[in-house]
Amino acid sequence: MKLSKRESRVVSSAIDQWHEEGVITDDDRSKLKGSYEVASIDWSLIAKYSFWVAILCIVLSVLSVLLDKWLIELIEQIFSAPDIAKSGFLLLWPRAFISTA
């Protein structure tokens, strides 16, 4: 079982207290202490994911600067479309995600 550092300190002190009080034997104490391990943090994995998130943020910020005018025009066209076109789009759009299998 993997425990955090705080949890392992609590469990270890509880086991030590039980041993001092005579509730468990030396053999039980060693078995209990060997039944868990302290979970370590994989800093290299966190660094790798942080790097990819930073790259994604840079790409999104550059795209938002470059495509800002185009996106505003697209949104204006959508809102200026006739009501029947908006209704038809909203009627058909959810059906594109429904599986026919």
From TrEMBL:
Classification of source organism: Bacteria, Pseudomonadati, Pseudomonadota, Gammaproteobacteria, Vibrionales
Keyword Transmembrane helix: yes
Alphabetized UniProt keyword annotations: Membrane, Transmembrane, Transmembrane helix
Annotated protein name in UniProt: DUF2157 domain-containing protein
Residues that span the membrane, as ranges: 49-67
